[in-house]
Specification:
By secondary structure, the chain is of the alpha/beta class. The chain is about 35% helix and about 25% strand. The chain has 14 helices and 19 strands. An 8-stranded mixed sheet has the order 13-14-15-12-16-17-18-19, with helices on one face. The chain has a 6-stranded parallel sheet with strand order 8-7-6-9-10-11, sandwiched between helices. A 5-stranded parallel sheet has the order 3-2-1-4-5, with helices on both faces. The relative contact order is 0.11. Bound molecules: cytidine-5'-triphosphate. Cytidine-5'-triphosphate (CTP) binds next to α1, β4 and α5.
Length: about 450
């Protein structure tokens, strides 16, 4: 019996896939189809796949062409599969010509002509091109990163930028339309990414929601509790997506870390300690204070994220100490907040006027998780125990600092009409409460 194997993602199964499977089958008597896992696709840079692994497997199964379906999970697995399953022929489409010649050592390699004029990428683009507007104001480098990342996210199309009347030197050579006023940007977009100024976020988000636009807003999306509650209710009423833009929440490693801790691998969590700092040079203090975000707004949301996601929001006591650049303007250069929970504690340290080790440590009754600096761009962490032999290291690919996954999640949320599952509203609201208290105390 001649055994043939072929691999693919098979997202939104189309005619090109079916033709390839039919011809692959004709190369032998028995066809094995390898369907890529979600994780493996992410590592390969395919982040826009719409269907889950199960849906894609079901679709391949439904063609009735495959005799056996396996999941492709890791780099180099093809060699393993070919040996293990006794494969005679490996085949893929002509878009891969030459790429798999290294498999000739193990079996025959055949590249089949790709069907012209159809691909999953094209179907995904046709399905839902969300026109994305960008609202800037102060954090130009962040706006720039989001703009650049949106260019590689399937289903997103840049409608233009409104930067509150200021020129954006770094985007000068980009072919992007600049808008002079916020309202006119509305007419050209379906959704907005907002990173204006913390004190303006509420106003900008509210206006966008009232105009029927989906919103991804840099945290904090408001400075007062009642404001974020109003925004949440408005988004619900208008059936719009409203998401916090904290890029760390969308990184694969950070999500795996949450799951590992929640599944009890380090026992009960007794402490979450997160530090986030960044230090920039400046000449004039007043100018710096006017143009930049204070420590609590720049870093508070990120540092608070693992605290509230791991320990919940029902702490008993909160204690804060801030050092100030400008006390009257509430511009903190460094802030430490500690939380007392019934059976745990948490500490965050944030600063734009101090430098420290930007690590995250989650301590438990059986062991702890250590994420080295800068933990907010997590691609690696360790689970450590008293007995070092039991220690485990985890690495997950992180492209575009997590921004790419975040934008992709935003586009997916819009097309599937389901709110964001990465940061729940109770967590967003608790972050705003802490910041609200900072300004009121
Ligand atoms: N294929 C094909 N003809 C097409 C599209 C895909 O023969 N028009 C083949 C590919 O060469 C590959 C298999 O189908 O051998 C699975 O491809 P996959 O990457 O899942 O599909 P694409 O449509 O190419 O997906 P994408 O646009 O996401 O790259």
């Amino acid at each position: 019996m001649k055994k043939v194997i072929t691999y693919g993602t098979y997202d939104l199964l189309h005619f090109g896939h079916i033709r390839l499977l039919e011809r692959a089958k004709e190369l032998g008597d028995y066809l094995v189809v390898g369907v890529t896992s979600d994780g493996f696709d992410k590592i390969r840079g395919k982040i826009n796949v719409q269907q889950s692994l199960m849906e894609r497997i079901e679709a391949v199964k439904a063609t009735g062409i495959a005799d056996e379906i396996i999941v492709e999970e890791y780099e180099g697995q093809k060699i393993d599969d070919i040996r293990r399953l006794g494969i005679d022929v490996f085949t893929v489409g002509s878009d891969w010509v030459g790429y798999f010649d290294y498999l000739k050592e193990y079996c025959e390699v055949v590249y089949l002509d790709r069907t012209k004029g159809i691909s999953s990428t094209e179907i995904r683009q046709k399905d839902r091109n969300v026109r994305l507007g960008f609202v800037g104001g102060s954090a130009h480098n962040i706006l720039h990163k989001y703009y650049t990342e949106s260019l590689v996210v399937n289903g997103a199309e840049v409608a233009g930028i409104y930067n509150m009347g200021q020129t954006l030197e770094t985007l000068r050579d980009e072919p992007v339309q600049m808008f002079d006023d916020y309202d006119s940007l509305f007419n050209s977009c379906d959704a907005l990414y907002i990173v204006s100024k913390p004190e303006l976020h509420y106003e900008h988000v509210k206006k966008a929601l009232l105009a029927g636009k989906h919103v991804l807003c840099e945290a904090p999306m408001a400075l007062r509790m009642e404001e974020i509650e109003e925004l949440e209710a408005l988004a619900k009423e208008k059936k719009l997506i409203l998401m916090d833009a904290i890029k760390t929440a969308y990184a694969t490693a950070y999500n795996r870390l949450l799951l590992i801790v929640k599944s009890g691998r380090i026992g009960d969590v007794v402490s979450v300690d997160a530090t986030c700092t960044s230090l920039s040079k400046f000449e004039n203090k007043e100018d710096y204070v006017a143009k930049n975000w204070n420590s609590i707004c720049a870093w508070g949301p990120t540092a608070l994220l693992p605290v509230f996601q791991l320990l919940g929001t029902n702490y008993e006591k909160k204690n804060r100490k801030s050092l100030y650049f400008d006390r009257e303007k509430k511009f903190d250069s460094f802030t430490r907040i500690s939380f007392d929970y019934p059976k745990a504690v948490a500490n965050i340290k944030v600063g734009v006027g101090a430098k420290s080790e930007g690590e995250l440590v989650v301590s438990g009754t059986k062991g702890y998780v250590y994420v080295p600096a800068p933990w907010w761009k997590t691609d690696y962490f360790e689970v450590r125990y008293e007995n070092q032999e039991k220690n485990k290291r985890y690495f997950y690919q992180l492209d575009g600092e997590g921004i790419r996954y975040e934008l992709s999640a935003f586009i997916k949320a819009i097309s599937s009409k389901t709110q964001n599952r990465f940061i729940d509203f109770p967590v967003s609201k608790e972050i705003v409460r802490v910041i609200d208290d900072f300004y009121q105390e």
